[in-house]
Amino acid sequence: MINQIVIESFNEKIFVQRILGSVEGVKQTPTVIAIGGIHGNERAGLNALLKVFQTIEEENICLNGNFYGIAGNINAISENIRFKNVDLNRIWTKEEILKLYLKDELEIESEEQNEIYFIIKDILNKEKGPFYFLDLHTTSSDTQPFIIISDSLNNRRYSSNFSIPTILGIEEYLNGPLLTFINEFGHIAVGFEAGQHDKEVSVDNCVAFLWLALVAAKCIHKKEVKKYSYFKHSLSLFKEDQDFYKIDYKYTIKPFENFKMIEGYRNFEEITKNELLAYSNQREIHSNIKGKIFMPLYQEKGNDGFFIISKISKFWLKVSLVARKLHFHQLLRLLPGVKLDRRNAYTLIVNPRTAKFLAIEIFHLFGYRKKMVKGDNFYFIKRDRKISEFI
Ligand SMILES: [Zn+2]
């Protein structure tokens, strides 16, 4: 297993090791933890983190709280591939964490996970909250920067500091991403997608995002960041409002399926109903709804072909905010066919007939996201949580 490497990335030689940098602030709080390269072919975040740590050192910038930078899948980074055996951003479940404790020999990505997990655990134990987690990514298609969060109110509040599109609820469609795992302990966790993998501007966008994120977390004062307004401006240059989006559809690529996206789609591009989007084993795939195309896949690895998203109305956002603040979600479990999971106070077990009758949107409104289907039942997990001890 490789622990440190020098790579050529964006025409620079960079030194990648697990802890890319760490700075202690004058106060104990807050703590910002940023991760770059959890997907090994998404290097922009690594360059950006190293640049930000370098600037902090060179300009002798004083931080209030603590700031850590962690490298993701170092073995995959060394080969510029998304992952070696399994996607490091799809194995953050309690079952997989338990395996880290039980197994003597770990697979390569589990080794990586093991190191990252214990670093995070250590930081959570030794520092004081609030904790802010930032996960830096890039995409295979051309895109403007955007944010992905689980729909908790603290995540929503934090991400409204960045005037870029924000996508809610991707965790219903993905298994085991790091940020969802972190969220379950009540911490703020934001995924930032900076642009296309190989474009220089993706590094600039990550740098801008990191400074803005440090200021928004109150880890650093605005006046300490020389180019603050430039960074703010550069991220919002894309003329897209701070709109929130929901995911309406995901196309999953099956094993051994030959999937080919139609060339040239930009992220967020409008699509019509019945539009030809891709080929699967030479068969045409048309969209069954209209909306905006999201994360169309233009690389070999990965099994999310594309998503279709639509804008969430301001009214819905407001209503769901009020409903959650007033704890209206407690009414949900009084309904027939809905019961509280005795082992987990954040989980509702719902029978499919009730789920159909109520529509999943109602659960979304109250801050619940469908986690899994077990037997005949749906399990909905609440996203707003109190801080709890990390496992
Ligand atoms: Zn990624």
Instruction: Identify the CATH architecture of the largest domain.
Output: 3-Layer(aba) Sandwich
Just give the CATH class of the largest domain: Alpha Beta
**Termini, distance in Å?**
25 Å
**Ligand roster:** zinc ion
Structural write-up:
A hairpin with a 2-residue loop joins strand 1 (4-9) and strand 2. The chain has helices at residues 44-58, 74-79, 94-102, 108-126, 153-159, 178-183, 200-216, 228-235, 314-325, 329-332, 352-358, 360-365; strands spanning 4-9, 12-17, 19-23, 31-36, 66-71, 131-139, 146-149, 166-168, 188-196, 244-252, 259-261, 270-271, 276-280, 283-286, 291-294, 304-311, 338-340, 347-350, 368-374, 377-382. The protein has 12 helices and 20 strands. Helix 1 packs across helix 7 (200-216) and helix 7 packs across helix 8. The strands form 4 sheets. The chain has an 11-stranded mixed β-sheet with strand order 3-5-4-6-9-7-8-10-16-15-12, with helices on both faces. A 4-stranded antiparallel β-sheet has the order 17-18-20-19. The longest helix is centred in the first third of the chain and has 19 residues, at 108-126. Helices cover 30% and strands 28% of the residues. By secondary structure, it is an alpha+beta fold. It folds into 3 domains: 4-238, Zn peptidases (Aminopeptidase), CATH 3.40.630; 246-311, OB fold (Dihydrolipoamide Acetyltransferase, E2P); 319-382, no CATH class. Zinc ion is lined by residues 39, 42, 137.
